[in-house]
Amino acid sequence: MRTCSPDMVRTDAHQLRPVAGDSAEAEAVKVLARAHKTLIWERTRHTQRLRHALRDYFPAALIAFADLAAADALHLLATAPTPAEAKQLTIAQISAALKRAHRRGDLRQKATVIHAALRERHLGQPVVVSAAYAATVRSTVAILTVLNEQITVLEGGVREHFGAHPAAEILTSQPGLGPILGARVLAEFGDDPLRYASAKARKNYAATSPITRASGKKKVVLARFVHNDRLIDALDAQAFAALSASPGARAYYDRQRARDLGHHAALRQLANRLVGILHGCLKTGTVYDEATAWHHHANRLAA
User: Packing angle between helix 179-189 and helix 229-245, nearest 10 degrees?
Assistant: First the structure.
């Protein structure tokens, strides 16, 4: 990290700002929320590796298991990682795995479907090659099993620490934000009340606000490509969830689409609007109110 020299402080103090002072509670939420999200990303990477390996030697497993990271799929792949071994699994064994994974519905019917899928004929590999792939699959399955366990453990920690933060009620009142997404947003924005001088400053940090560049008569509006990946990931997820949780958010998104904006561009505009709403709620210490949040846009449409 670069530090400023004494001369810079003396000559350019007006261009410097104090370091944000987030609370210890917010820092604890950040540590846990980031670790939790990192493990989720790692699970996705290992699931893709598992998918690629199965595609090469055991494609029937991809038909049988819709979610390769699910507990039942991992248990059955650990028990029978080759096509030959999978064909020996009984409906009772598959049903037991589904029950252990707390699957709902008609477990025997689901087990029958999996049982049939594992017996589908596909172009396979020589036995010795299948055995080599099976060794790698067992290893990946073991990693995914541990990741699932630790993700659950860290999720509990995120919920506990976030729930104890004074801003938790305001954050979870926002459309599309629950305890986990709310914790991620808090972690990346921080809780220093003086860090963002205005809603625009918070939007600029979030990289949801566009950049306007003008030269002569030409004006170009661009998206911000330099951003905090963790924050923009959480805000995108919030905006998408808000489409179902908030009539105002849905109407705002639909208006952006009516302007011929694509889905991602319209979602970014919605995220930008939601960041502004969140800033207002945090500044005034009030929870989200649907009518108040979208009152300005509703009046503009009615005019």
Answer: 140
